[in-house]
Amino acid sequence: MNNQEKPIKSFVIDTNVLIHRPDAILSFKDNEVVIPLWVLEELDRLKTFSDERGRNARHAIRFIDGVSKNSNLSEGVKLENGSTLRVIMSTGSMPTGFLEDKTDNKIILSAYELQQQGRQVFFVSKDINARVKAMALGIRAVDYEKQKVNYDKLYSGYGRIDASQETLGNLRATGSIPWNDNPTPNFYLILTDKSDPENNEIARYRAETSTLSLVDHRLPSVAGIRPMNHQQRMAMDLLLDDSVSLVSLVGKAGTGKTLLAMAAGLYLTMEKKSYSRVLVSRPVVPMGKDIGYLPGAKNEKLSHWMQPLFDNLEYIFSVYHKQNVKTLDQLIANKIIELEALSYIRGRSLPGQYIVIDEAQNLSPHEIKTIVSRAGEGSKVVLTGDPQQIDSPYLDANSNGLSYLAEAFKAQTIAGHVTLEKSERSRLAELAAELL
User: Fold this and answer.
1) pLDDT at residue 30 is higher than 80
2) 189 sits in which H/E element
3) CA triplet 145, 249, 186: central angle to 5 degrees?
4) Which residues of 56-105 form beta strands (DSSP E)?
């Protein structure tokens, strides 16, 4: 038996990890968590920001302050989960060619020095370039894996199965059939006659009754919009169901996810009166960035960032002829549609509203939680996006909030998800999404 003491496992945390998730320190149970002093400097710089980064920076600072009461952070503070938190400052010189005027490099140097002391070091960062630089110095570098999913295996919300003509006949005749395979709630099945692929139906699993419920392939036009393929029919079925409070739609450009969400919202608000208004937003305005630098009132400022949503609404109005409603401006003036910056949704309570968050793949899991938790009684939240088209430098298809939410809520009866595959915008748009 080898009695020699094992090297200490030390996780050196980069600033962006704490901005991504302020309580990330608690994710490293029974290990040493190291915060370089330069990380605290960056948190101090960010704490004055009014956006999500500023709030997370303040949260992280308060957490570190709270656990360090009557303790010496330089020597290490024992946390409730068995790990030890320590703050260090690099004192050595940079390796040859390593620029020390960069804060990122100083943080990496802290990990380098710990490794030189014989510790088992892991540099944890959401910044790919920082991880590459750390690995160039021989340091193990990893992404922060908490709240990540495997996008290649992301829950699609539906599946395909061979069915007998008898099963299909019973489903059509009665509208539902018993089903004991127990898929996730609101899971869709495309049942196909093996001998005749054109003979198929879509059914939705109802967990409360353990039955498959027929989705009519002749769904009526909703605000002038009619589903054009199987996945769009599934999406519209979820969007029109008031018992489903949370819907996530994933798909590449042109699959119709935003168009369907907006059409259903207008129909449910203006015709069925299920909701008081349609509230729409998207994180094109960087999360929490103030919109005051643009001229005009709030709606005028937001209109610069909401144009993709306006394009969908303008198309809907070209085919949706509702009495006494002629223009989008009229709906906004009458508060049937409300535009809101994501940074201003935080702190609000939003009861009885149909809430659409477009481009949700650019939100972190923490930001998604902030938004969805704003939904009051009787509200429905619809999130749309393409996890393969992400603008944030610290998110990817596996770590963004939209992918995480789809996996986290798949077992809930009040939630539904559909991955849309086929572009219906145009043949050119579909080829562009596939080839470019």
Assistant:
1) yes
2) strand 188-193
3) 95
4) 77-78, 84-88
Residues 107, 282: Cα–Cα separation, whole Å: 33
Q: How far apart are CA 33 and CA 44, in angstroms?
A: 19
- 9-142 maps to CATH 3.10.20.30: no
Q: What is the mean pLDDT of the chain?
A: 87
Contact assessment for residue 86 and residue 33, using Cβ atoms and an 8 Å cutoff:
yes
pTM, 2 dp: 0.83
DSSP 333: H
pLDDT digits (tens, 9 = 90+) for 67-111: 888 788 988 999 988 899 999 987 666 666 666 678 888 899 999
- Other C-beta atoms lying within 10 Å of the C-beta of residue 143: 17
The answer on pLDDT for 5 being more than 70 is no
Task: Identify which of 359, 188, 148, 130 has the alpha carbon closest to the alpha carbon of residue 258.
Answer: 359
Domain positions in the chain: 9-142, 223-435
Q: Is 392 helix (H, G, I), strand (E, B) or coil?
A: coil
Query: In this structure, which amino acid lies at residue 162?
Result: D
Domain 223-435: CATH class, spelled out: alpha beta
Question: What amino acid is encoded at 109 in this protein?
Answer: L
Residue 100, pLDDT score: 66
According to the model, what pLDDT value does residue 61 have?
Answer: 95
- Looking at residue 1, its pLDDT comes to 43
SS3 of residue 274 by DSSP: coil
**Predicted pLDDT of residue 288:** 45
- Tell me if domain 9-142 and domain 223-435 are identical in fold: yes
- Give 287's pLDDT tier (boundaries 50, 70, 90): very low
Residue count (the chain): 436
What is the tally of helices (H) and strands (E) in the chain?
15, 17
| Chain centre to alpha carbon of residue 335 | 27
Contact 106, 38 (CB under 8 A): yes
